[in-house]
């Protein structure tokens, strides 16, 4: 059948609230026109992030009941470690409270002044930890002419740029090479196995470890299975193990493809590096068998890792994004293409071509999605990055296993109305009236023009 059904049925439900347009306008004004400051109870569809927001399965909730809360030597850790090593056979697995904690621990050992860390694209927290250590974070993504140019693996690293870096005068300053799969900051685009192989060979030829930021590893493996020649008959698990075998370690946020509400880990092969990271882990996260998590969280992740590599789940997951995005494109609404794994990225500069960037077109579209339909999305543009913003995008990230097709159908209608208002020139620009010195998008106060 052509219909891909949600591969689950629903046992526990939470209410979704809807409000009038007038009420939402008031909520937005009271939140200083900053969507991060809205109460989630006043949001109908929350597409702010796919991180930690998904629904856990009955098996995960069941596993939480057998979580062992011992400070040291908990069997929950053993189950967690086995589940991680089943997919990622790295020698040392260090649990952390989320992905950014794994990054902090890793770069406390590998970072430092004068060093430079290449990545296809650093996620914000990865960049922040590299830079906080004193090192430089370098994005070496393959460049494309436009956000709509098609390519099956638009998240790939620019191998020639990496070669120039490693062979050049700064090559000696590179402590490791990183690859982010899928490439979140570049539109949730996947990285091919072929690209990973080339990056791995190049890094190893220069004696550098390759570390994977594996947050959305299962979505990436699904794209490899469906798009890369010769991969269609292979299982997701095999592809994931191939990805791991090309790397020397990984950082992970279990809030994405761990299917858990919290958690993460750092895994590495090198004994010396692992010993140094363990010391830092104990200082800032917790003892090595819990790393800032409850035993029950470790059990939830152990089960989540078995569920996330199931093909019916991934097929439903990727099809949801595809169904949503294709409907928008068919209605002439500009999106980053090809569609990625975890989110739809609206291209606000094409929706509002005559609005100056300093009037925050992405934020204008994001606010309109909320006012018109109670949808909370996230601007990724000038509000978030200031003058360094490459594009004016609005990310609608889809939580895992949480919304059904009719939720998506409703979201499509809301986007259509917002696009019509944008075409008519009826969406206001915004100005920032108060902002903190860094990470301004989280707390800035804004006003419409
Ligand atoms: N790396 C990537 C690629 C991410 O997308 C994130 C989080 C992290 C690392 C950090 O993980 O949140 O567990 O500390 N991304 C979320 C998002 C916040 O909305 O895209 P964390």
From TrEMBL:
GO biological process: aromatic amino acid metabolic process
Keyword check for Lyase: yes
Highest rank taxon of the organism: Eukaryota
Gene3D superfamilies: Aspartate Aminotransferase, domain 1, Type I PLP-dependent aspartate aminotransferase-like (Major domain)
Xref: SUPFAM superfamilies: PLP-dependent transferases (SSF53383)
Keyword Zinc-finger: no
Keyword annotations of the record: Lyase, Pyridoxal phosphate
Record-linked InterPro entries: ArAA_b-elim_lyase/Thr_aldolase (IPR001597), Beta-eliminating_lyase (IPR011166), PyrdxlP-dep_Trfase (IPR015424), PyrdxlP-dep_Trfase_major (IPR015421), PyrdxlP-dep_Trfase_small (IPR015422)
Cofactor list: pyridoxal 5'-phosphate
Segments forming domain Aromatic amino acid beta-eliminating lyase/threonine aldolase: 46-411
Coiled-coil ranges from the UniProt annotation: none
GO function terms (MF aspect): carbon-carbon lyase activity
NCBIfam families, A to Z: PRK13238.1 (NF009709)
PANTHER family with a match to the protein in the record: BETA-ELIMINATING LYASE-LIKE PROTEIN-RELATED, TRYPTOPHANASE
Family statement: Belongs to the beta-eliminating lyase family.
Name of the protein described by the UniProt record: Aromatic amino acid beta-eliminating lyase/threonine aldolase domain-containing protein
Protein's organism: Pycnococcus provasolii
